[in-house]
Amino acid sequence: MIFFKSVRHLYLTKYNFAAEKSLLATLRKKTGYTFANCKKALEMHNNNITDAEVWLKQQAQALGWSKATKLEGRQATQGLVGVAVDDNSGVLVEVNCETDFVSRNKEFHDMVQETTISCLNYVKNHQKSPSQLNTKIFLDSEQLKQLKTPDGKILADRLALMIGTVGENAILKRAMCLKVGNGVYLTGYAHPSGTTIDNIQLGRLGGLLAYKVLEKNETTIEVARGICQHIVGMRPTKLGCITDKPNVNKEEETCLIHQEYLLDDTLTVNDVLNLHNIEIVDFKRFECGESAKAVGDQPLEYVETCQ
Q1: What's the rounded mean pLDDT across residues 89-100?
Q2: pLDDT digits (tens, 9 = 90+) for 121-152
Q3: Whose CA is closest to 95, among 175, 186, 10, 1?
Q4: Which of 36, 118, 193, 235 has the fewest CB atoms in 10 Å of its CB?
């Protein structure tokens, strides 16, 4: 009898240990926090994984605000640009961190994704202009912090939570939002390409292109995307007009329509536009870490366009 009691006790001990270990692994995977912190959270909440997760996030939030205050001012020029287009709305977002290592971190990717979604939701719900008009909205760091996330929180809180997790400074630097009217289309591109989360492209460079086309089809959509890729790669500073004189040195050309087309250097961008009956309404390019000033809301009709 004593022998069987001992075996039964051993069995239950192993079972409980395995169950606790499974809870610990699950909580660690869900939150990304250390095993020591996850173990403490489970012990404090009698192995209730839901309560433990809430407590961990509260602690990380508080720690994040503390770290954000301590780390504020430290240089953050690494990071990512997020690009997203949904129907007649599109956004470019830049989020910075201190190191390239953190810029590859899943927590940081999630932060860029959530910021991009929040900006996209903001511009989609923006009713400042009638539907037939085009609007361009610039958001600075402080404005970005106040945007609501899909779960109803503000981005400032989400940023603090991430800082508490990754342990280095991070900045919601800027965003540009486009909302276009009837007959105007949007396309976006990020480089290096390959990282896409829920239709949000991530890269160190990003671009948005607003354009008109005589006939929208698969070919013209692909050509417009190619022009956006060209903008990201060749850094034009203005659209230009046909009356502008091309630069003698082709490699120093900054006028978009006179640049040699990135995907076919036998053509200029203007040649490509004419071949496919495409008219550029506006474009914008973000490069992670570059100096830039926000200029506030500006209707697209006031930017230089190619007639």
Answers
A1: 94
A2: 999 887 655 566 788 999 999 999 999 988 88
A3: 175
A4: 36
